[in-house]
Amino acid sequence: MVNFRVLARGMSTIAKSFAELEVVPDVVPVAPTSLLKVVYPSGVEVNLGNELTPTQVKDEPTLTWDAESDALYTVAMTDPDAPSRKEPTFREWHHWLVGNVPASNVGKGEVLSAYVGSGPPPGTGLHRYVFLVYKQPGKLTFDEPRLPNTSGDGRANFSIAKFASKYKLGDPISGNFYQAEYDDYVPLLYKQLGN
């Protein structure tokens, strides 16, 4: 039997948090090695599983990581707990996907799926929302459909690990995550998505 306490002692804070809240293995097989800074316009910051509200995370955040000026990156935000952590039949529901990001300028990347904030259904408890950054081997041509933030179609049953494998992205280099549960902003988000 694996002694997780002993194992955790030798791990970084990032790896520990990703393991303790089971982001590894539910989302990715290996935790990123560096912490992604995620700050929302509401002023809240994501911090390795801290609890935020859908109201606080409704607008697209600013991401900062140790990027190489001449490299391209893929950025993703995904929820492995759709519709709930107990019964994740839609794992993963991806909230944001941007490829060919120059350095850390997400706004200049190619938006594959426009940002959608957290919308956990009522009574489903805390959901994990995971941000990951992958360094691309070069400029990529993505064949995914482009998804607007006005519909939830095409976002369920996604796998960032399969996506990373498809485009030979390797393991994530940077990441972070928060947890959120239903609040009174969620019905407004559902209306935006046409539900």
How would you concisely characterize the structure shown here?
The chain is an alpha+beta fold.
Please tell me about this protein's structure.
With 195 residues, the chain is of the alpha+beta class. It is 16% helix and 25% strand. The strands form 2 sheets. Strands 1, 3, 5, 6, 7, 8 and 9 form a 7-stranded mixed beta sheet that branches. The chain has a two-stranded antiparallel ribbon with strand order 2-4. A hairpin with a 7-residue loop joins strand 6 (93-102) and strand 7. It is globular and about 45 Å long. The model is unreliable at 1-8 (pLDDT under 50).
Terminus-to-terminus distance: 46 Å
pLDDT averaged residue by residue: 93
Q: Strand-and-helix sequence, N→C?
A: HHHEEEEEEEEHEH
Let me know the largest β-sheet: 7 strands, mixed
Give the helix level as a range of percent: 10-25%
Number of strands: 9
Strand pairing plus helix content: what structural class?
A: alpha+beta
Estimated share of beta-strand residues: 15-25%
What is the C-alpha radius of gyration, as a whole number of Å? Answer: 16 Å
**Low-pLDDT ranges:** 1-8
Count of helical regions: 5
